[in-house]
Amino acid sequence: MIATLPRLRDDLAFSQQTTADGPVFVVKDPCRDRFFRLPEEARFIAGQLDGATSLQTVCQRTEERFQTPLALDTLTAFIRHLDSAGLLANDDHSGRARPTRPRPRRFSGNLLYLRIRLLDPDRLLNRLAHPLRFFYTPAFLAVSAALIVAAVVTAVTNWDDVTANLPHLYQLANLPVILGIIFLVIAGHEFAHGLTCKHFGGEVREIGFLLLYFQPALYCNVSDAWLFPKKSQLLWVGFAGPYFELFLWALATLAWRLTDFETTVNLVAFIIMTSSGLKTLLNFNPLIKLDGYYLLGDWLEIPNLRRRSFALIGRALKRIGGAEITNPPVLTARERRICLLYGLVAVVPSLALLVAAFFALGNYFVAQSQPVALAAVTGLLGLKVRRRFRRLFGGKSAAADPDDDDLPAANEPPSVAAGAPPPLRKKKKSARGRWRLPLCLAGTGAAAALSFFCRMELRVGGPFEFLPRHNADVRAQLEDIIEQITVHEGDQVRVGDLVARLAGRDVRAQLQDNAANLAEARVKAQMLAAGPRPEEIQLAETSVAKTEAALRYAQSQWARNQALAEKHLISDKELEDSRALVTAAESDRAEAASRLKLLCSGSRPEEIAAANSEVERLQAQRRYLEEQVKLLDVKSPATGIVATPERELEAMRHQLVKKGALVAKVYELRTITAEIAVSERDIADVQTGQKVVLKVRAFPELTFIGKVVSIATTAQGATSSPASILSPPPAPTRSSSAPKMILLTTEIENPSLLLKPEMTGQAKIVCGKRRIIDLLTRRIARTIRVEFWSWW
């Protein structure tokens, strides 16, 4: 029983609001900055608590007002709930009232959610509210919306330029500028919340620094928005921050496009454009406790939506497990549907993200042999999971949990409607509930037995890439111009089939010149082998006879001149001239005789041999040129399918190609090889001859079957595709913690030619049956036996 008549505090502020479930009243406790939602019945009862009205009178007035009975025990429990929430006056016999508003703490929260109060911006916002009132006019809304649409179009049409400039932005030298600009944008974001709250008549008493999961941020406490009578005003307060940042993003995008790349304005605009765009998308995500979540809760008129949804899912899991549910909160059918839907959507990704983050960090620290870091991550995750499960199953976590709303509301008081049970009354466990726990234990035992005695196939997976079983490169054997391409992409060719033809004008000209030179050399050789003709010898003998006659005449003339000279009848000069004629005649006779002798002796053997050698050289040159002419026809060295794209084949026409240049590729695709990259952690279970099941991304509805043909003898560094493993290995390092991959090959029959080289997909190797428990623990056991073993 209550010793004194309760009285509601006089300093509480009430605001009536209309919701889908009827009118509700929001109560603000100015001393603690806490807010409460009371239904109409609870507000009526609280209004009767004036310190003079008896509880029986309150029950009677409530029953008359709402036409429903109200038990005294229910009213007493409700009053105790109000008192525990601090809404009742705590007057003692001396007449002292509840203490005034305490001074807020500078630091609050915990390691994962640390809040640092910086300042009270209310006076500053009062000064800014009037000069900045233009931002709350329809004209600004229309102009800003048009700018945002124009910026979206600009970003989409210039997306290639955006991605090309990103590497130039994120450099170590730009980091201080980036952090400073992001801090200013976030400050403007939070001031937009506060100014909007001030515009609608609320108070903003706190702006501070927030460290959320070790990520720095700012926050603005706009709790007074809960007192606004119109839901649209509350929504505008939550929408103002991300919309203002989106407006800044639009201005930055247009400025980036209109300014020169080298200017400072362009750099600042690009930083705002790249950072605010992503942050705005995250802000509007309702699954993250940012502005999008609060907007969703305010629009649905369900405060603490995340906490209620998790509690609803937790109670459902408790019921499945046969646990007893005491004092469940009263939810309308609409609230139950919304909380169930949001809980299912939010719980699974949230827990999955935690598990994925734990395993990713755990694998990294295990590979790096960092047990202290692994223990720290496990502790932090345990703290978070403990809070998450306490939230999920209805427990109370610390007030500064990130899963709590920044605008907390107390647990709602029990309804005073007819049929509502007293809050402290426990439900009697049904017969169905008594059987839930044994059934769960029996199911757990059956599952454990199945895991030890049943066997399932072990499948080891990995990415693969197709390669042709045999491939051949069709290459030009001469440097020349391609005159004709005789094949098309996809054509079937055999060994020796013509693929392309070179012009060969120079080669053919050289061949014709060689033919003429060879004919001339052959004639010369024949002439030397045949020797002089009789006519040539007779002519030479006639020439000798003539020179002898000339010599006799010259001698007789000289003799006469000597006789005359003795008688001094001629001069000495005439005598000398006649002597010179004799000498000349003797020389001509000797030359004619030598010529005759040479003709009679025939050709020299050396000359005949040299002529024959020249003929042989020209014949060899002719054979080489004939081979070159044959090489003008570029033929396929293998049987297969032309794999060179048609546009590349067309581009080669009338183009100069170097000797050895690639003209076309010919693949043998009737049987195709797949290279599968398997982690070294799984290779111990793989053997040659095991079945391989492949799914190709191009044909997801088809399944291809093969067998393991070979296993590589060396491991390679992990890469994104098996083909890149074939590249030359990097320089060796001392680190052995990097993941390694091993290549397996399998051959697939491809009679329909559906499979093409360089297609990719995922493959699974069937490694035989194992116990289910072995399949579940194989990775953990390997980590313990290898990685943890290395720590000791």
Describe this structure as you would to a colleague:
The protein contains 21 helices and 20 strands. It is α+β, with helices and mostly antiparallel strands and 792 residues long. It has a 6-stranded antiparallel β-barrel with strand order 8-15-19-17-16-20. The radius of gyration is 52 Å and the shape is elongated. The two termini are 64 Å apart.
Can you summarize this structure?
By secondary structure, the protein is of the alpha+beta class.
Principal-axis shape equals elongated
Mean pLDDT, all residues: 79
**Estimated radius of gyration:** 52 Å
Task: List segments where confidence is low: pLDDT < 50 over at least 5 consecutive residues.
Answer: 92-97, 396-432, 725-737
Per DSSP, what share of the residues sits in E-state strands of 2 or more residues?
Answer: 15-25%
Question: For the largest beta sheet, what order do the strands appear in spatially?
Answer: 8-15-19-17-16-20
- Spatial separation of the terminal alpha carbons: 64 Å
Q: Helical proportion? A: 40-55%
- Class by alpha and beta content: alpha+beta
Largest sheet: 6 strands, antiparallel, barrel
Assembly classification: single chain
Q: How many distinct beta strands?
A: 20
Number of helices: 21
Keywords:
alpha+beta; elongated; 20 strands; 19% strand; 21 helices; four-stranded antiparallel sheet; six-stranded antiparallel beta barrel; 792 residues
